[in-house]
Amino acid sequence: MADIDPEERALFRASVGEVIPVRHDRHPRTPPARSRRREIYCSPPSMEVIRHLRDAPFDYGGGLALDPVFYARDGVPRAVGRRLKRGQYRIEAELDLHGLRLEEARRALVEFLREARRRHLGCVRVIHGKGWRSGNTGPVLKPNVNLWLRQFDDVLAYCSAQAADGGTGALYVLLGK
Q1: Reported confidence tier of residue 137, pLDDT bands at 50, 70, 90
Q2: Confidence label for 156 from pLDDT (cuts 50, 70 and 90)
């Protein structure tokens, strides 16, 4: 410490301020905070709500933004599904549904698949997006595209694309020729 300039030492002491030596390195023990359990009363559901929940069809179409989607018709070999998931089929056409309303997207998808069938395409990509701008309702296009594709006889299988091709915001769709 003898080699430190007295001016620098004074500057250091002025910037650090008063120092209190530590006598031990243990932290003082404080008792854990008591949790307050709040009772929340919910009225029983009305019969109308119960009937609606019972009768409403529950069809999960893979609607969450980051959930991967996979579907294959009966009879499609598992190896074909694995190749599709890996993105090993050449994408011959692409449809981007970003920004379209639901009915516009359905019409565009129908026309796109008709044209793909007419041109005898094997694998196409459909970009539906992840639904980040859909607000609290979650994605709108993704679950609907998932359900619409199942209605086409020409669709053999589809799955979420590889990250480089759009990830869970796009689908590889394998068509029968």
Answers
A1: low
A2: very high
The verdict on residue 59 lying in a domain is no
8: tokens are 């620098």
Domain count, the chain: 1
pLDDT reading at 61 higher than 50:
no
For residue 6, tell me if it sits in a domain.
no
H-type alpha helices, the chain: 6-16, 47-55, 78-86, 102-118, 141-150
> From CA 72, how far away is CA 173, in angstroms rounded?
10
Q: Tell me, what CATH number does 125's domain have?
A: 3.30.1370.110
Query: Does residue 159 lie within any of the structural domains?
Result: yes
Kindly report the number of other CB atoms within 10 A of residue 43's CB atom: 5
Q: How many CB atoms lie under 10 A from the CB of residue 61?
A: 17
**Residue 112 — φ and ψ, nearest 5°?**
-65, -45
The whole model's pTM is what? 0.61
The answer to whether residue 51 is domain-embedded is no
Helices 102-118, 141-150: axis angle to 10 degrees equals 40
Domain that holds residue 157: 70-175
